[in-house]
Automatic annotation (TrEMBL):
Species the sequence originates in: Kribbella hippodromi
Keywords from the named record: Methyltransferase, Transferase
Name under which the protein is recorded: Methyltransferase
Example GO molecular function: methyltransferase activity
InterPro entries according to UniProt: RsmC/RlmG, SAM-dependent_MTases_sf, Small_mtfrase_dom
PANTHER family cross-referenced by the UniProt entry: RIBOSOMAL RNA SMALL SUBUNIT METHYLTRANSFERASE C
UniProt xrefs under Gene3D superfamilies: Vaccinia Virus protein VP39 (3.40.50.150)
UniProt record, GO biological process: methylation
N-terminal signal peptide: none
Domain Methyltransferase small: start-end pairs: 28-194
Amino acid sequence: MADHYFSAEPGSADVRRTVEARIWGKPYTFTTATGVFSRDRLDIGTAVLLRSVEAPKGSGTYLDLGCGYGPIACALAVETAATVWAVDVNTRALELTAANAKAAGVADRVHAVLPDGVPDDLRFDAIWSNPAIHIGKAELHKMLLHWLARLAPGGVAWFVVGKNLGGDSLQRWLTDQGYPCERVASAKGFRVLRATTS
């Protein structure tokens, strides 16, 4: 069976390369590999999210949900004094996130872990995610509800979702689940959504 970026253990050869990206005005060089999401460039959806939302400031505890090779997690840690939990089911992606955080000088504040590696009592001031829509609606909803329940009071979740992959219906669903959600940007076929604790 072909690898998916949400495969836990990619079976493909681990062929690595680097990609250049500019996030919040700063240049980055990320190591990527086969078997991870968007290995050839910073994917368009993530780029839209990071261009549409200003870099946060200060400290706190953030979650990068479905971190891939870690561009969001690394940028959040570089821009802030926050602790960032980078979560993915793909072990190769987590290895790359850890390596990229080290290269960016923020390895001490980026924790790249499997979902079960996040302490149960941890609460997040913000969630950032380009979620894995292709896992299917039922699994997506289950995943989002699990992590949204761990937002701290006053917390915010930022999502980027393709319009043709259900971005508008996800916005309505999030609001119906008790997480008021607004569309803050739309570009290149993607919706940027902001959900909050009600």
